[in-house]
Specification:
The structure holds two protein chains of two kinds. By secondary structure, chain A is mainly beta. Chain A contains no helices and eleven strands. Helix content of chain A is about 0%, strand content about 50%. In chain A, strands 2, 4, 5, 9, 10 and 11 form a six-stranded mixed beta sheet that branches. Chain A has a five-stranded antiparallel beta sheet with strand order 1-3-8-7-6, with no helix packed on it. In chain A, strand 9 and strand 10 form a beta hairpin. Chain A starts with a strand and ends with a strand. In chain B, strand 4 and strand 5 form a beta hairpin. Chain B is built from no helices and eleven strands.
């Protein structure tokens, strides 16, 4: 079983749609959780951190369920510019080493 | 504020050769981590350097080694290259929190794309 699992997609959605990505992780001692965005042939960029209380940044909402070891990302009112690969990331119990999921590819179409 | 920089951007080598990749961390950061990203996969952790020492290592063979300099910049060396080493090599920098063992958010450089023929 992979340490961090994501549906690879692709998710093909029209502009304005709401789309949700899920991620599960195996290490119950993981300390920190993130969503990164990666454009084609570019480096990953931090999209947002994920907290148990849930957090929102504009059209993006992230949620962590520690009991189920599950992380989610919701994108509302999708834009063409949201097309990218979204990487679910967890740290080890010391918060040092990042473990990435394989990524979920999103394609937003006009 | 200079971000993370890496050199070279692209590199082509043949099997058995050795390669050195370089990384300069974001201004104010003191910790450097290296990741390997094969095509279509997420990045995989290679190792992390802090205070010029390797602090943590992922599941990579000894052919992969590194170094951190007093100015916090870092090198990744790969010996005896294999075809399977072809990947995007990413460097990420962060600031070690003196209040505990947790590192701050990691910021990635643009990567070095290595092709092994």
């Amino acid at each position: 079983r992979k340490e961090v699992e994501q549906d690879p997609g692709p998710f093909n959605v029209p502009e304005g749609a709401t789309v949700a990505f899920n991620c599960t992780y195996s290490n119950s001692a993981s300390q920190s959780f993130f969503w990164y965005r990666q454009d084609c042939r570019k480096e990953p960029k931090l999209l947002m951190s994920v907290y148990s209380s849930g957090n929102e940044d504009g059209r993006f909402t992230a949620q962590l369920n520690r009991a189920s070891q599950y992380i989610s990302l919701l994108i509302r009112d999708s834009k063409l510019s949201d097309s990218a690969t979204y990487l679910c990331v967890v740290t080890d119990n010391a918060g040092n080493m990042l473990t990435f999921g394989g990524g979920t590819r999103l394609m937003v179409k006009p | 504020d200079a971000g993370v920089t890496q050199s070279p951007t692209h590199l082509i080598k043949t099997r058995g050769q050795q390669v050195t990749l370089r990384c300069s961390p974001k201004s104010g950061h003191d910790t450097v981590s290296w990741y390997q990203q094969a095509l279509g996969q997420g990045p995989q952790f290679i190792f992390q350097y802090y205070e010029e020492e390797e602090r943590q290592r992922g599941n990579f063979p000894d052919r992969f080694s590194g170094h951190q300099f007093p100015n916090y910049s870092s090198e990744l060396n790969v010996n005896a290259l294999l075809l399977g080493d072809s990947a995007l090599y990413l460097c990420a920098s962060s600031l070690f929190r003196t209040s505990g063992s947790f590192t701050d958010t990691q910021y990635f450089g643009p990567g070095t794309r290595l092709t092994v023929l």
